[in-house]
Amino acid sequence: MTNPDQRRLLGAFVRAHRERLPPEGALGRRRTPGLRREELAARAGISVTWCTWIEQGRDVKASPPALARLAHALMLSRAERAYLFELSGARDPDSPATDTIADAPASIRVAVDAVTDPAYGLDPLWNACCWNGAASRLFRGWLSEGCQRNLLAFVFLDPVARDLIPNWKERAARLLAEFRSDYGHSFTDPRARDLVERLRRDSLLFRQAWDAQIVLEREGGLRSFHHPVDGLLRFTQHTFTPSERPDHKLVLLTPA
């Protein structure tokens, strides 16, 4: 579902890009800049009425395949195409497959490798996509080869997390409220739904916290851990998002 502001932005975006496209085979001067609506409709395989209504900001229900054809007809870049789908409240059918953990963006991987304090990257579903040796030592059972690499699954299902994290219930509930903020962008992803349903089934605490419908911004601050070897450790957590992949996160833990 989209709101009026989204629809107005979408309409202005489509119209601006339509008017930038040179018409095919046009000779002489035309009163209409760029493509006419009927020309764009023909290119995209959609109706002229639909083109008109979307540019007018009406509440148009468009399927993801139709939006994909529109993006192709408008010759949008990857960033522009993502913006089109975001404003439309739809998921791009040509987005990368979601059955595997996404590769870490280069900027996150370089940053993680460059620091000696614990650092790791999270993909849109909060799977760890990269981490350094300090993070692997801190998060035994999560950031180790052969272990569950989803942060939520680790925190809610792994007994190691309950021993590692002081005030485990409160921290776990807070973590889930922060994840729900991101879930609003990925709820159409079947992998996201599968993750939530699996955790609801396997964790009573997750189910109760999820049903509470609390949404919080991800915040930094003091984080304490009861490490089995190093004892009580305290860090300040910092979270960043790379400009080229804002659906990913870089998390740094500096000694407090």
Written overview of the protein:
With 256 residues, the chain is α+β, with helices and mostly antiparallel strands. The protein has two domains: 85 residues, lambda repressor-like DNA-binding domains (434 Repressor (Amino-terminal Domain), Orthogonal Bundle), CATH 1.10.260.40; 150 residues, Beta-Lactamase (2-Layer Sandwich). It is 48% helix and 12% strand. The chain has a five-stranded antiparallel sheet with strand order 2-1-5-4-3. A hairpin with an 8-residue loop joins strand 4 and strand 5. Helix 2 packs across helix 3 and helix 10 packs across helix 12. The chain is elongated. About 2% of the residues have low confidence.
Query: Can you name the CATH architecture of the largest domain?
Result: 2-Layer Sandwich
Number of helices: 12
Q: Report the average pLDDT across residues.
A: 88
Oligomer: single chain
Which stretches of 5+ consecutive residues score pLDDT under 50? 97-101
Number of strands: 5
Largest sheet composition: 5 strands, antiparallel
The SS-based structural class is alpha+beta
Rg, please? 23 Å
The CATH class of the largest domain, by name, is Alpha Beta
Measured by DSSP, the beta-strand proportion falls in 5-15%
Order of helices and strands: HHHHHHEEHHHHHHEEE
Give the CA-based shape.
elongated
Estimate the helix proportion, in percent. Answer: 40-55%
